[in-house]
Amino acid sequence: MKDYLNKIIQGDCLEVLKTLPNESIDMVMTSPPYWALRDYGVDGQLGLEPTFQEYITKLCDIFDEVKRVLKKEGTCWVNMGDVYNSGGNYRKDGSSGRGYKYNRTEFGRVKMDKRLQRLEDKALCQIPSRFAIEMSNRGWILRNEIIWHKPNCMPSSVEDRFSVDFEKLYFFVKNKKYYFEQQFEKSIWADKDKRAINGPSSGGKATSGNYSINKGGAFRKDGLRNKRSVWTINTKPFAEAHFATYPEKLCLTPIKAGCPEGGVVLDPFMGSGTTALVAKKLSRKYLGIELNPEYIKIAEQRLAQGVFNL
């Protein structure tokens, strides 16, 4: 296993995962290519399947192998976004009829096979939910569905629905007992003198009208509480070729909570290397897998520049 540590391996993630030893990884932090959203320009890429059913099957087959290499006490964190049912006509040969490769139109949009989707036009496909259910069907234990709220999300031109300003981050484990270091945030509960701690205008009162008093346990005297499952984190632009990067802060809490110091963090869809950068900053080892060699160059350049300030 030492030959894999602190490296990014080029190749198909399913095939590379098959070469890793059983129960050798402490934690997984990743964001797979979203379905029907981007063409990354390499053969064999995930996300250009004509139906979401095929996409979810392929993705969960990969996570079957992730489950094998994950330690019994390991944790798995997966960031996913959704998509609406739209797109051009699909051809069985994967071409648009105009010489465009990888099952996309001349406008770069993935062609969906609507004959098999069983969804009306404009319907939200619910890809993250379908993925989480299939993962549960395959034996994973879903511990949290975390909402990544993006206060600076891109403006939307839609006029017949609300703009989407969040994505989901799923927290899976493979056993009931697993490594987890509790994380805290500022509390809004009242202290013993009935003064609001970090609270706005509630006067320290709960919705019942009664004052909420710190009594230990769930209410801590240091003004902190167990971290909640809605995380407000700004997106961060990235000028290099990989345009689908998640921010460093999205990795920070999962790695601190789900991987022991000195442990190994795996990202089977490494992309531009954000997971590796955060793991390195937090004194963890990393292992990345990436299909596109150009993205590996970007990731290695970022890693060579040194650890950034979180």
Task: Chart the SSEs and their pairings.
Elements: E1 7-10, H1 13-17, E2 25-30, H2 52-69, E3 70-80, H3 114-117, H4 127-137, E4 141-149, E5 166-173, E6 184-186, E7 224-226, E8 230-232, H5 248-258, E9 264-267, H6 274-281, E10 285-290, H7 293-304
Parallel strand pairs: 1-10, 2-3, 2-9, 4-8, 9-10
Antiparallel strand pairs: 3-5, 4-5, 6-7
Helix pairs in contact: 2-4, 5-6
CATH architecture of the largest domain: 3-Layer(aba) Sandwich
Approximately what portion of the residues adopt beta-strand conformation? 15-25%
- Using the alpha-carbon principal axes, give the shape: globular
Q: For the report, how would you describe the main beta sheet?
A: 8 strands, mixed
Distance between the termini: 29 Å
Low-confidence stretches: 88-108, 199-204, 209-217
- How many discrete structural domains? 2
Strand order of the largest sheet: 1-10-9-2-3-5-4-8
Summarize the amount of helix as a percent range: 10-25%
Series of secondary-structure elements, N-terminal to C-terminal? EHEHEHHEEEEEHEHEH
The CATH homologous superfamily of the largest domain corresponds to Vaccinia Virus protein VP39
* DSSP E strands, number: 10
* Count of discrete alpha- or pi-helical segments spanning 4 or more residues: 7
Given helix and strand content, the structural type is alpha/beta
